[in-house]
# Entry
Amino acid sequence: MGISRKIYWLSLFVVGLMTILLPCSILAQEENVDLTLRLASDSYYNRMTAGRDITIFLEVGNNGNKAITNIRLYADLPEGWTAEFRPGLIDYLGPGSFQTIVSIIRSVDNVAKGEYAVNLIAEANETRRETNIFVRVESGLFWVWVGTGVAALVIAGFILIFIRFGRQ
# Structure
């Protein structure tokens, strides 16, 4: 068997092997969608005063190799609370791209003190992603000032009584 025949059979073997392996590698490289939604800060616990709002920065990203379109942002909140996202809609997010979102969450005025779970959601035509945060509602400063005022009046009253009747 001559060298040219060996090359001929070797090339047939390589071509046959390529016809088997090439479609497998094409299938392995199919497009995938990977939407990420994370807090820009490391804090999953946020503090707010009843009736006030807090600002949370989110990062929406595309870790896949296919573009993601029409990403809508919304939140699952306790009753009466509202959330505003800026921007509220991302038309197009290419592969490897990230965008920062400003989220403003407002509680109702008469909310009870405690911890509340807030579910932040990014939903696109191709996929959906959620993340949770906890918001701790603390009482407002109104009652602190009322208590301070009452204490000041009581102290002033004792001083007046001592000045008026203390020298007798």
About this structure: The chain has two domains: 1-30, 35-144. The first strand starts at residue 35 and ends at 39. The helical segments are 3-28, 142-165. Residues 3-28 form the longest helix (26 residues).
